[in-house]
Design goal:
This protein has helices at 17-29, 46-55, 74-82, 99-102, 118-130, 156-161, 167-173, 189-205, 214-222, 228-242, 255-258, 266-285, 290-297, 301-310, 315-324, and strands at 36-39, 64-68, 107-111, 132-133, 142-143, 147-152, 176-179, 211-212, 247-248. By secondary structure, the chain is of the alpha/beta class. It starts with 16 loop residues before the first helix and ends in a 10-residue tail after the last helix.
Length: 334
């Protein structure tokens, strides 16, 4: 449960505007002690965001403790969070400090916070308000200096409206909010992440990195990714294990990915491809001279810079292909 350190933003890979905005939010919010609520679909990487908030904060040298609120029953969750005295319940053969005490001076990440029971919500409210808590089976108050980061994959505002979540607790948990976008809305970030996971998984196992062919990339881009980044990571691990160093076409992908229908909005995706190709070619003709490349394209230098960042497939996508297919004519740009 403890953070292992490393590059704080290493797991937040992507060039799309939503990810860049999210990274800016993380960097702005991390140094403070403000409580942050991270929202996003299952598998989008909410814990990675929470870890980045911790590792970029003054608390980075202390514990990062992650707790899945849906993984415990009512009384057990309270006992695990706040600890318990010996004999507090059946099976409590010894006293135990809880996750709050373990996170002292650091960060407590509560995932799936919408699943907290009314009892757990009441106990958590006291703690986030006052920094005080009681171990189960004790009357003595204890204090802890802990930053709380919460997350959920449901509409917690609607849950509050329906009476399933305390509004006073919600107001205190969401002093600031960070939204993690679903993978299907991140365009060519799918390919950047795919390559990132291929290199990561292959390196960890001492295997050669598989090379994604154009048809396989098209299939990855067309897939809706209901499991988001977690699903993509699992698929890339499968490719590393089954096809180390091999060329990957649609036939090597899982059937549900290989046979994905083209999504709505594919015309926009095609136009982005064409625009990205034109930008790459102009930059290749004017290496290191962005003003000339922008003039050729009929746009300003500032617009060209923005397109290089926004057209995720642009420069980075070309570099990925150069690594896989070194015999192709180089399209590296300055």
């Amino acid at each position: 449960m403890r953070s292992s350190g490393g590059g704080a933003l290493a797991g937040l890979v992507g060039l799309c505007p939503a990810i860049e905005s999210m990274r800016r939010d993380v960097m702005q919010l991390a140094p403070s002690d403000v409580r942050v609520h991270v929202s996003g679909e299952t598998g989008t990487g909410k814990e990675r965001v929470a870890r980045a908030l911790h590792e970029l904060s003054p608390r980075a040298g202390r514990s990062f403790v992650a707790v899945n609120a849906a993984g415990f029953g009512d009384e057990l969750l309270v006992a695990e969070l706040f600890g318990h005295a010996r004999g507090a319940f059946t099976g409590a053969v010894a006293a135990r400090d809880g996750y709050v005490a373990e996170a002292e001076g650091g960060t407590l990440f509560l995932d799936e916070v919408a699943e907290l029971s009314p009892l757990a919500q009441a106990r958590l409210l006291r703690f986030v308000q006052e920094g005080e808590y009681r171990r189960l089976g004790e009357t003595a108050l204890r204090r802890a200096d802990v930053r709380v980061i919460s997350a959920t994959n449901v509409d917690l505002v609607e849950r509050v409206r329906q009476g399933g979540f305390r509004d006073d607790l919600w107001f205190r948990l969401r002093q600031e909010r960070v939204l993690v976008p679903p993978l299907r809305e991140r365009g060519y970030d799918v390919l950047l992440l795919a390559r990132h996971f291929l290199e990561l998984q292959a390196g960890a196992r001492g295997l050669a990195v598989p090379c994604l062919g154009a048809a396989a990339e098209d299939a990855l881009l067309a897939h809706a990714w209901p499991g988001n980044v977690r699903e993509l990571e699992s698929e890339m691990l499968r490719l590393v294990v089954r096809h180390p160093g091999g060329d990957v076409g649609p036939e090597q992908l899982s059937p549900e990915i290989a046979l994905s229908p083209r999504p709505r909005g594919s015309l926009k995706l095609a136009l982005l491809r064409v625009e990205g190709e034109m930008v790459r070619e102009a930059l290749a003709r004017h290496p290191g001279r962005q003003a000339q490349a922008a003039a050729e394209l009929g746009i300003t230098r500032q617009s060209l810079w923005a397109k290089r960042r926004r057209l995720d497939a642009g420069i980075e996508h070309a570099r990925l292909h150069e690594r896989c297919y070194p015999r192709r004519p180089s399209r590296e740009v300055g």
